[in-house]
Specification:
Blueprint: H1 3-16, H2 18-45, H3 49-69, H4 74-89, H5 98-114, H6 119-131, H7 140-153, H8 158-170, H9 174-191, H10 194-206
Helix pairs in contact: 2-3, 2-4, 3-4, 4-5, 5-6, 6-7, 7-8, 8-9, 8-10, 9-10
C-alpha cells in the first residue's frame, strides 16, 4: 500500500521535470531579444558607418539565436527586422541585396503573423511596400494603408507620418502632407528626437511650409 504514493511521486517528477528547462529557454530568448534591440538602438546612435555595422551585425546574430530558442516570439523576429533593415540601409538606403530584402520581408511577415497588431512591424512593411518597385514586391496602395493604420494606432508615430507626408506630396495632396509633417515635427520636438526634427523640417521646407 505504501508503494503507490512513491509511484505517483515518481510520475509527477517526470512530468514536471521539463518545466524549469522550458522557462529557462524562454527567458534566454527574451534576454537575447532585448540585447539585440539594444544593439539596434546603439547602432542607430553610432557616429561611424563601421561602428553602426558592427552593432547591427551583433544585433542580428543575437536575434537569430533568440528565434532559434523561441520561433514563436514576435519580438525576436522583429529584432531581426530592426538590425537587418539597418544593415540594408547603411549605404544610403540602397536596398540592393535581393536575398536580404526577401529575408527582411519574410521576418516582417512572420512578426505580423505572430502579432498582427505589432505597430513597428506594420510601419516597416508599409514603408517597404511604398518604396519598393513592383518587381520586388512593392505595393504603394497597401503600403499607404498600413502606414495610415499605424498613425491611427500610435499617435506618436513620427517616421510613418513623415513617410505619408512625402507620399501625399508626390500625388499632389499638399494640405494633408503639411498636416502630417507638422504633426511629426511637433512630436519629434516634444520627445527631443533631433534626427526626426531635422527630417520633418526638411520635409516641410520641401513643401514650402513653415517649420515653426
Amino acid at each position: 500500500m505504501l508503494a503507490m504514493p512513491r509511484v505517483v511521486a515518481a510520475v509527477a517528477a517526470v512530468l514536471l521535470a521539463p518545466l524549469p528547462r522550458l522557462a529557462t529557454a524562454a527567458q534566454s530568448a527574451a534576454d537575447l531579444t532585448a540585447q539585440a534591440m539594444r544593439e539596434c538602438d546603439d547602432g542607430q546612435d553610432a557616429a561611424s558607418r563601421d561602428a553602426r555595422k558592427q552593432h547591427f551585425e551583433r544585433g542580428e546574430a543575437l536575434a537569430n539565436q533568440a528565434v532559434t530558442l523561441d520561433d514563436k516570439s514576435a519580438a525576436a523576429h522583429f529584432a531581426i527586422v530592426c538590425n537587418l533593415g539597418e544593415i540594408l540601409r547603411l549605404d544610403g538606403e540602397k536596398l540592393t541585396s535581393v536575398l536580404l530584402l526577401r529575408r527582411l520581408m519574410a521576418e516582417v511577415d512572420r512578426t505580423l503573423e505572430l502579432d498582427p497588431g505589432h505597430v513597428d512591424a506594420m510601419a516597416t512593411k508599409g514603408t517597404l511596400l511604398l518604396r519598393l518597385p513592383r518587381m520586388f514586391g512593392g505595393d504603394a496602395k497597401e503600403g499607404e494603408r498600413l502606414l495610415r493604420e499605424v498613425i491611427r494606432r500610435d499617435d506618436r508615430a513620427v517616421t510613418s507620418r513623415i513617410t505619408l507626408a512625402k507620399t501625399c506630396e508626390a500625388r499632389g495632396d499638399r494640405d494633408e502632407a503639411v498636416q502630417l509633417a507638422s504633426r511629426a515635427l511637433q512630436i519629434a520636438t516634444d520627445e527631443g528626437r533631433a534626427d526626426k526634427v531635422a527630417e520633418a523640417q526638411t520635409t516641410l521646407k520641401e513643401l514650402g511650409a513653415s517649420t515653426r
